Every structure is written in structure tokens, then in C-alpha cells.
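step=encode ok
step=design start
structure_in=
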């Protein structure tokens, strides 16, 4: 996907005019450029894929691996307002292959840095780890606050949305409970 910074700058300038602002005044003169640069950064997931980050290492390990409290920042596709929180990723390796721990955080970023629905993002992260790692099981839990619920509409600050995606061996009750305990049972 080609990112068209110039087109975004023009659109932001039009938004400024539409809300009654002067896009040429000192404080707003460079705003269209700053907004376009910001969108290029926070929507960088469109130009990336999980495959770019999944480095596999041969290691005989068949127990659960969890990286929890991975910060996420994304944009709701309905209002283009941020949602933010944390993701917890647990997987059971398959075929004596593990990935670098930081790679799990990078996979989360690939999907978070797009216009998103939290539910879809949670599934995409789980599917990528399951498929690309050949994992025996995966659980992804995402907890986030959505500014579209906090600063507009229903206006409910402090509310969190929690989503989960559970695949393979993680669907078995004892394994699921172990993962949830390790993620939340501190």
C-alpha cells in the first residue's frame, strides 16, 4: 500500500477550513504536514507483515511461553480515534521451534498500527502466531480503552474492552486456565 502524504496534507487542510479555522495562521501552518507524518507512523502496519518479524530458533521446549503487558496503540476504524491498552500473548511451541520474545511484541504492533477493530486485531495476532510459528496453541488477550467511548458518545471513562482469541491446544480447559492465571493471576 502506497502512503500518500501529500494527499493527507491536503485533506487535513480542508478539514481545518471546514471547521472554521485558518490553515495559514502560525499555529496551524505546519499542522497538515505533522498530521500526515503522524498517520504514516501510527498506521505503519499496512506496510509490514508478521512474516517480517517471526524469526524461528530450534529449541526443544514444549511448555507455555507468555509475554504479557505489551503496550498497544491503535486507531478505531469507525471514528479514527485512538484505543490503547495492553496485549498478552501466550503460545505453546510446535516442532521444537520458538521465536524471539521481542518478535511477539512486533507482531502485535504490525496489527495494531492499522485502522482496526479490537476484536479483529486480537484474532489477527493469534492467527499469525498459530500459522507462522506452527504453534500447538495460542491465546491472545487484549485489554483496551477506546477514546470513542471516553471522549464522545456514551462518555464512559475508565471502561475497558477485553477481547480474547484462543486457538489449538489452548482451548483445552486446564491449559486455558493456566494461561489466564499466568496472564492475570499475578
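sequence_out=
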Amino acid at each position: 500500500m502506497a502512503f500518500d502524504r501529500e494527499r493527507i496534507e491536503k485533506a487535513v487542510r480542508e478539514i481545518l477550513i471546514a471547521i472554521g479555522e485558518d490553515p495559514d495562521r502560525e499555529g496551524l501552518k505546519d499542522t497538515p504536514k505533522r498530521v500526515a507524518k503522524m498517520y504514516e507512523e501510527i498506521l505503519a502496519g499496512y506496510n509490514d507483515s508478521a512474516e517480517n518479524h517471526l524469526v524461528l530458533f530450534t529449541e526443544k521446549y514444549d511448555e507455555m511461553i507468555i509475554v504479557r503487558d505489551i503496550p498497544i496503540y491503535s486507531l478505531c476504524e469507525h471514528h479514527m480515534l485512538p484505543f490503547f491498552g495492553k496485549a498478552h500473548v501466550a503460545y505453546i511451541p510446535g516442532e521444537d521451534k520458538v521465536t524471539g520474545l521481542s518478535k511477539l511484541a512486533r507482531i502485535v504492533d504490525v496489527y495494531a498500527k492499522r485502522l482496526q477493530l479490537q476484536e479483529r486485531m486480537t484474532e489477527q495476532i493469534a492467527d499469525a502466531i498459530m500459522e507462522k510459528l506452527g504453534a500447538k496453541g495460542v491465546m491472545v488477550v487484549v485489554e483496551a480503552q477506546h477514546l470513542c467511548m471516553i471522549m464522545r458518545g456514551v462518555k464512559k471513562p475508565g471502561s475497558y474492552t477485553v477481547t480474547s482469541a484462543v486457538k489449538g491446544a489452548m482451548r483445552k480447559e486446564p491449559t486455558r486456565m493456566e494461561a489466564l492465571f499466568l496472564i492475570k493471576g499475578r
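step=design ok
step=annotate ok -> The longest strand covers residues 65-76.
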